[in-house]
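Q: Hi! First time doing this. I have a protein sequence and I read that you can turn it into a structure. Is that right? Here it is:
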Amino acid sequence: MRPSVPHPSHANAEACVPEPWWLGAHTGAAWGLSQLQADEARARWGTNSFEPQAKRSLALQFLARLRNPLVLVLLAASTISAATGDIANAGIIVLMVLLSVTLDFVQEHRASNAAEKLRASVALRARVLRDGATREIPVTEVMPGDLMLLSAGDRVPADGLVLEARDFFVNQSLLTGESYPVEKRPDAPSGDAPELQDALHAVFMGSTVISGSARVGVMAIGPRTALGEVASSIQVEPPPTAFEIGMHRFGLMIMRLTLLLVLFVLLVNVVLHRPLLDSFLFAVALAVGLTPELLPMVVSVTLSRGAMRLAGRRVIVKRLASIQNLGAMDVLCTDKTGTLTEARISLACCADADGRDSARVLMLAHLNSTFESGLKSPLDEALLAHPMDTAAWKKIDEVPFDFERRRVSVLLDRGDARWLVVKGAPDDVLALCNRFERDEGRSPAPLDADALVQLRERCHALERQGLRVLGVAWRDVPADHPHADVRDESALVFAGFAAFIDPPKAGAGEAMAALARSGVHVKIVSGDSELVTQHLCTLLRIPVAGVLTGQEISAMDDIALRARVGRTTLFCRVNPAQKNRIILALRTRGHVVGYLGDGINDAPALRSADVGLTVDSAVDVAREVADIVMLDHDLGVLHEGVLEGRRTFGNVMKYIMMGTSSNFGNMLSMAGASLLLPFLPMLPAQILLNNVLYDLSQAAIPLDRVDAADLHRPRTLDMKFIQRYMWLFGAISSAFDALTFWLLIQVLHADAPLFRTAWFVESLATQVLVIFVIRTRGRPWASRPGAALSVASLLVVAAALLLPFLPLARFFHFEPPPAIFFAWLAGMLAAYLALAEMAKRFFYARLAGAAPSRVRRPAPHRRARA
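A: Yes, that's right. Below is the predicted 3D structure, encoded as structure tokens:
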């Protein structure tokens, strides 16, 4: 038994009925709401979604960020410090923590709001009857009592009762596991059929309409639907992407380094009998300084800015992480219709078995397209563009199109004749025929082996001209034959071929070449013939490395397919399950895979790809599972998206390299200094201030420019690359810190306050200014940084130089350094930046290695999305 929403006619019913709602009697109800009734229903039932209706307040969201373990330790330490009488130091620690958390919160909150607005712009909508008129509303606003209007390609937005239906087939495999379409009719339910799959008069949220149309009364929404009961088990996060795997490994590396460094510092200070509280605060502040706590903010803001820039190019990003996936993508799988072609399909000819133009073939194909109730394909529209008088014919039944059979059949009656007219893929239609028409008016001839070879060769000749071909067949059926099913598709009479032309899209060849130059291998995954697809590739000058057909793929196991996909360019005559296998095979080989599709048959592949792409005109199910929606079906725009993804990766990498080089070096120097000096090299509050000022300078990294050289190839997060970079630049930073220590102790004879002040200034200046070296692989003076980054960095360095001379200095126990120190500082800064530039060139020439375009990961699983 399952809980359900009471029927809208039961206005006072609050309790859940003890049986499935589809077993109840619902006849005679008035369906369709006014806007006032819909508002009342929303107040009662909430929104049609599985997400919590109320978002946490900003205050609670801010407080949630204080749950970071390091932040909690710092706040606890400041409380202990205050309890021991050091109120000033405790207040400064709290202030530094709040500044850091606030900076992160504000930036990421703004990025989140911008992303939410973009997602809302492509949210799914439903057609309902409101106030007596058909209206499109967001799916979340569908209410019990609404009258939904559904047609082929729609995603069913709520559980409901089928009131009217015309050849209405749905796929409800998300709930039942049954992959075959189920026909729904407005029949009374059987009293002994309590199972969901037996409810042939009801539809359920999450199902996909395969063909036909229906009017449905909404019975249940959101968590009260059948899907809502299992939502927690199917609404799982998608498998980790290459970037997410890299970020996880980076986090583990930083955690290990931080733990090692903190334990070392604590041990040294305990052995040297230094004050335990000061040593503990110093160690925790050191951990904060080493932890890249701004990394989530930098990633979010960078991705959000990328999404906004893509929105300006009419590309809407539904899932922010997909921008990074797009930049890392090294294989793009795409259909050809509408992407490589204009999708303006026109009828080229209708030919009989001898290749002559045939009005009869046109008539049969036109009848099939006219009475087919499923989603009209561009081929159907091309046939219907040739008007014919079909008034004498009446439709009796239909066997809808599906991607396994690759054909559609309609049962028609004219009074004096009842025909089954079949249209579909030529090979599939020919396989069902035992006769063929040669001359109109003569009896059909037997379809023997020789005739079959000739017909197939005639079909291939049309395909070699770049024409898409359909086979057309028919058969007489008895006048009392009431229904059509798959078993009727046999002993057919082959009539001929309908051939269509779809010209190449202007600019498609250039866009494909641009993607290839950017390191993205484009593979065409199509249901069309290999001859048609190869002809198109010839016109667009796209090199073809290998071809696999759906029949060949079906004979391969997954291991064999993985061995072939890498060296294959064209996958032809493939069904949805085979498209999905191709994507999974490429991902298992370590590729970052994008898939571009817009049909019902593309949904599995869109789910399984690292980044799913579709267009705004796609069917609901494709738009729902896709990560990125393009308002223009244009590969040129897609190439811009790839470059944008690489810009985001480039800026994220700048922050990571900063945090694992100069910052790591400074923290390493601090740990070493605590071993050699008779006092703490910096006070905990000074370390935290250093960290906050450094974070302020780095917060502008998402606004920085990225060199064109960094956009040429896809890149993923390589831990060996980062580790080598960290150790080389950390060693250089520590060496200059040691030089500073020698200068302060041996030349300036600094006491503890002066030492801490001077080193604070030197460490902050070096680790901030080195960004101008690290941000580019080329010469720093040849790569212009973003204005915001330049201003933020120079202001922070200026603040560090001025701080010892301001009244605020006494709160941090600073004192003004002598003038000679600034002369030494200028020389050391120049030397440090020059050495960093030389080290960078050495690193990229000898140590960096080839940036990988693949990532090792476990075999992917399909993404489950409600």
